[in-house]
Specification:
Length: 200
Amino acid sequence: MELADVLDSCWHGLEEAVRDRRHAWRLPVLATIAQDGSPASRTVVLRHVDRVAPSLACHTDARSPKCAELLADSRVSWTFYDSAAQVQLRVRALATVHLARDEDPIALERWDRTSLSSRRCYLAPAAPGAVSETPSANLPAGLLERSPLPGEDLPGRANFAVIATRPIELDWLLLRASGHRRARFVLEGEGAPAATWVEP
Ligand SMILES: Cc1cc2nc3c(=O)[nH]c(=O)nc-3n(C[C@H](O)[C@H](O)[C@H](O)COP(=O)(O)O)c2cc1C
């Protein structure tokens, strides 16, 4: 087992998770720092991976609290777990929020590539997290049972945001009855990451 192969397996797994909706790393937990300094975490869909940039990204509603949190403090942590392979990957990263309402080119390019069914949640009339007097689905009347038609999706664009994160450190953990293994990769600066084995 070589450190370079471990790092390659991390990026390969992340790339597969974007392609394959059934991949175990498709639904990571993304942790941010709330404005009162407490941790805040939630499940998201991994939407974009670029090992060269490097970058990991998800999509969100620009009105959701996590966007304001990231403007105040860009530090995030991703946690991925593949229970079949028994591999955990944690990624410390710095986030940038790209807002379609600001005509941000990254947000617009990703919006163009989302499906009509994915766009439905960006048509939510109220901000995510707003208090509701009923058990609300937060969808416009008529869109509970179907995707928006072309044109109906357009108001959702203003609520669309891409959370793009630049990884700083990868922490890989493999669980085995014969002995766990753990490695850390620091990606700061140009050139090859600083790789080291770590006690599990
Ligand atoms: C399986 C699953 C996938 C989710 N994917 C996303 C996502 O890609 N983007 C997102 O903003 N919220 C997603 N959510 C909802 C978030 O977990 C969270 O409830 C919501 O974004 C509000 O988070 P916040 O209040 O911390 O901003 C997902 C939830 C689940 C259970």
